[in-house]
Amino acid sequence: MTKKLSPGRVFAWLAMAVMILVTVFPFWWMIRTSLTPAADIYTDNLGLLPRNPTLINFTRVLGLTTEAEARAAGGSGAEINFAAYLWNSVVYCSLIAVVQTLFCAMAGYAFARLRFPGRDLVFAIVIAALMVPPIFTLLPNFILVKDLGLMSTMAGMVAPTVLMTPFAVFFLRQFFLSLPRDVEEAAILDGNGPWGIFWRIALPMSRGPLITIGLTTTVWAWKDYLWPLLVGRDEGNRLVTVALGVFLQQSPNTQPDWTGLMAASTLSVLPVLLLLIFVGKRLVQSLNFTGSK
Questions:
Q1: Can you spell out the DSSP letters for 61-79?
Q2: Which of 67, 86, 156, 179 is the most buried (most CB within 10 A)?
Q3: 112 Cβ contact list (under 8 Å, min separation 6)
Q4: CA 159, CA 150: separation in Å to the nearest integer?
Q5: CA distance 124 to 140
Q6: Among candidates 193, 192, 198, which has minimal Cα distance to 176?
Q7: CB 160 within 8 A of CB 227
Q8: How far is residue 62's CA from residue 35's CA, in Å, rounded to a whole number?
Q9: The model scores a pTM over 0.85
Q10: What CA–CA distance (Å, rounded) separates 28 from 280?
Q11: Contacts of 263 (CB under 8 A, 6+ apart)
């Protein structure tokens, strides 16, 4: 039987369509601008598709054209060492996502299953940290990293967030609380201790939530700008997001290179977009807290 098309259902579909449009349209306009010749950026701004699409903006920001060709295409002659900055961003995000997810899983399991003095108090302090704005910890973290001699290093860039975040600990704790105790009790009868239960039982059953935390952490780390800008001062440690800001600063002050910037931004979004596409199914499954494949 088909469901009746009630006014409430119609309104819900319309509201969802509007939200999808509002979310997707900026990305579409970024791609459209990146395919627009620099000479048409202010004249060809009404249609959803560029009148004269071109890939010159991508080739010149990647340094695949000469400086004369780039300037002839309306650029400033600036380019981005995209391969190096992309690798730096991948290393930065991978370290934070993998290590943070692992340690948050350990902490979440400890708060959910282990009994130790002060457990509830420590967990309350961790949850209270959610209310502290990140900007308040920026200066103390900067001074600490500087005193440790980790400025302009990948270790200094990942240091403040590589071990844990309060939300990830809380999220994984809530999932571990939902795991059936019968399985753990059977593992205890087989001679497993807390460490063995965590690695052999809890982690395999929590693949979905772990993927969720890993994915959200990766997206957050990929778009991080202020902290890598302060700490990763050397070009050898520069991330893609910071490189985009440097590219914009290299453009003439009278007329920023918007088409080149949008082309570089499109390239920077592609890795995360592909990641979301490939693991999207796992992410949807994890929202059900089933832990299934």
A1: HTT-S-HHHHHHTT--S--
A2: 156
A3: 173, 174, 176, 177
A4: 9
A5: 22
A6: 198
A7: yes
A8: 14
A9: no
A10: 20
A11: 34, 57, 58, 61
List of residues 6+ apart from 130 with CB closer than 8 A: 166, 167, 170
Task: Report which of 223, 232, 214, 229 is spatially closest to residue 165, judged by C-alpha positions.
Answer: 214
Tokens of 125: 């302090």
DSSP per-residue letters across 132-175: S-HHHHHHHHHHHHHHTT-TTSHHHHHTTTSS--HHHHHHHHHH
45: confidence class by pLDDT, cuts 50, 70, 90:
confident
Reported as a single tens digit per residue, the pLDDT across 245-291 is: 888 777 665 577 888 889 989 999 988 888 888 877 666 665 554 44
Which region, left, alpha or beta, applies to residue 201 given φ > 0 means left and ψ of -120 to 50 means alpha? Answer: alpha
Contact at 8 Å (CB) between 235 and 6? no
How many residues does the structure list for the chain?
293
Q: For 238, how many CA atoms within 13 A lie in the half-sphere containing its CB?
A: 18
Under 8 Å between Cβ of 162 and 100: yes
| Residue at 265: amino acid letter | S
Nearest CA to 167 out of 122, 126, 110 is that of 126
Both tokens of 87, joined, read: 């690798």
86-112: burial string, b at 16+ Cβ within 10 Å, e else: bebbeebbebbbebbbebbbbbbbbbb
Cβ count within 10 A of residue 32: 19
